[in-house]
Amino acid sequence: MTIILRDKAALSAWRSAVPSNQRVGFVPTMGALHQGHVSLMQQAREAADIVIVSIFVNPLQFGPNEDLSRYPRPIEADIAKLEAAGIDALFLPSVEDMYPQGASTMVVENLVSGPLCGAMRPGHFNGVTTVVLKLFNLVQPHLAIFGQKDAQQCAVIERMVRDLDVPVEIRRGPIVREADGLALSSRNVYLAPEDRAAAPLIHQSLLAVEVAYRAGETDAQALAAIGMGILAQSPRIAPQYWDVRDPESLGAITRVGARGALLAVAAHLGTTRLIDNMLIGGD
Length: 283
Hints:
By secondary structure, the chain is α/β, with parallel strands linked by helices. The protein has helices at about 10-15, 35-45, 75-85, 95-100, 115-120, 125-140, 150-165, 195-200, 200-215, 220-230; strands at about 5, 25-30, 50-55, 90, 145, 170-175, 235-245, 260-270, 270-280.
C-alpha cells in the first residue's frame, strides 16, 4: 500500500525511518499520471529498494499566460496508479508547504536553460531547478528518474546536479508513445479531436529528419527545414521551434558531428503546447 505524505514534516519522519542500507529511488511528477510516468516508476523499482513519487503542480514553472489553473489534477486516479505500480510512498505537498510565506530564493542555471523552451518560456527552468533541488533536499534519494520527453529539463537538472555537487544519480527514461507515435503527455487530454488527429505529424517530422540524416545529410539547417516541412502539412500545427542542437549543452551547431545531435520540436495545436525530441548519431 502506498503511504501518502501530505507535508514536509510527514516526509521527514518517513525518510528518517528508511534503513540506511536501503536505496531510495525518486520520480518527481506533476500528476495526471500516464504510462510514461509508470515506465519511470518501473525503472526506479528496478534500481532501488524503495520508490517514492511526488505529485506537485509547481506554480514557479508556469508563466502568467500558461495553464496552471487548468492543469489536470486527477489525484484519486493517480493514487490508484501508484498503488497498482507498487510505489512505497507519495509525497503530496501543498503550495504553502513547499513555498512558505516570504520564500525568496531561486535556483538559476544559466547555460542549458537558455535556448529552445527556455527562450519560449522565460523563467520556466528557474522554477524547475528550484523545486527539484528542494525535492532532492527533502526526499534525499539515491537516484531520480526523469523522462527523455522533457530532454531540456533533463539536461538542466543534470547540469544543476553536477555544478552544485548534489549527491543524486540522475537517470533518463525513454519516451513512451501512443500507437501513432504521439509522445504521452498529461497535456494531450486538452487536444480537440482535429488537433489530436494532426498531432502525430510532430513525431513524423522527427522520423523524417532521422531518415535524412542516415542518408547522409548532416547540415543542421537543412535537417530542421525537413522537419518544419512535415509540420507544414497541417494548418492546425503552429510550430514554436524545430531545431538541431548539441545533445549535452543544447548549444547551436551547424552540422551533426561525432557527438550526434538532439532534434527538438515544440508546437501549439489549438491552445495546447506539445514538445518532442529525438537523439541522432553519437556513440
